[in-house]
């Protein structure tokens, strides 16, 4: 595969990437703050973590996307941070939590060196991976409608911007929604930020390691990061026809996570929602040029990291439902395309519908998130349906099945 080309860069791809980074940051930076605070981080350490996280996400996104020419978007592990919120105090305190995050990064790196994993993911049926993507996107798209009930004026501004762009500049419908969101937040006073733009002084936490922290923190964070983030992120890329560089992504993000953990940077992984924004046709009509969108998202993450204290204040002032609604509108065409791909083949229709609905439900069983649970259930139903289909004797035609 050839290297990156300057000719691949376009305003559409850059706008899509920057929009994806801002939407992703705004949608879950509060989880980062809550997760780190729950394990004992001070405000200064949280600012350090946001700085390190932004730089780490940016460098890995640019590196992976530019070298593979696949739109590999890297984000933090939101499920992993949610676990930290639920766990609260970690064995060994803050140094114990850092040691657990270092262990997660090392485990992800070692997982990336297993050659069978990319081959296994490549064998997943395209209809089911498309259904996973559709299920992940459905709650976002629904919020774009329900926001009109809760915030009719602000929601209408988003819809008008999206419809106008869809009519006159469809390639920029996503960025138009983001611009409308910023206007709404600014009108409500959400862009007024007190304080300076000084970078936070890095605070390093020396990790400690204990069996208790490894079992209570590292193991569950590793499992949810692999199942709920990396697996879904790879499925998103596969649904757009890419061959996900799973091994390289795991090695790169795992190493970055381990190295940046003493700065309290959370674990990083392949993106799902941000991945859909940068890998779909909204980023570029040419799939070979969409890597620019993921790389642009990486650059935007670096900027957000450098503005960590300010960025955290700005994005947390944006109403969460408006951020979700904006993402839903930007992803509506992607949802339509992935749903169509999931149900196109009649033989895959029922298992794909199951995967879509279970993924969208957000259900969790025995710690297994909805996306991997849905994919596992879809594969089981698919195999059962294939086994029960009667074979037609030679010279005879099977009777039509009554629905």
UniProtKB/TrEMBL annotation:
Which is a Gene Ontology cellular component entry for this protein?
plasma membrane
Keyword Heme present in the record's keywords: the answer is: no
- For this protein, the parts annotated as crossing the membrane are 12-39, 45-63, 70-88, 94-114, 126-147, 153-169, 176-198, 204-225, 246-265, 291-315, 322-343, 355-381
What keywords tag this UniProt record?
A: Membrane, Transmembrane, Transmembrane helix
InterPro entries listed in its UniProt record: Benzoate_Transporter
Name the domain of life.
Answer: Bacteria
**GO MF term list:** benzoate transmembrane transporter activity
Give any Pfam family that matches: BenE
PANTHER family in alphabetical order: INNER MEMBRANE PROTEIN YDCO, MFS FAMILY TRANSPORTER, PREDICTED SUBSTRATE BENZOATE
UniProt protein name = Benzoate membrane transport protein
Q: Which species is this record about?
A: Pseudokineococcus lusitanus
- Taxonomic classification, please? Bacteria, Bacillati, Actinomycetota, Actinomycetes, Kineosporiales
